[in-house]
Description:
Blueprint: H1 6-16, E1 22-26, H2 31-39, E2 42-47, H3 52-67
Parallel strand pairs: 1-2
Amino acid sequence: MPVMNGLDAARQISSIAPNTAILMFTMHESGQLLQAAKAVGVKEVISKSDGTADHLLACLRGMGAAAD
């Protein structure tokens, strides 16, 4: 992202629309990133390198169930 990173974007989205479910899709998965992402309102973090399609679907289903 040329203007800001994903954490900055999530922080802005959360401040503008706090009920928005945010999913972060990243190449740089780490415990530190996961903790920082959760702190700014990200519900799930998905690595681009692991079983992405299955993980993405499971996360989206989980986020939908949490909204019910």
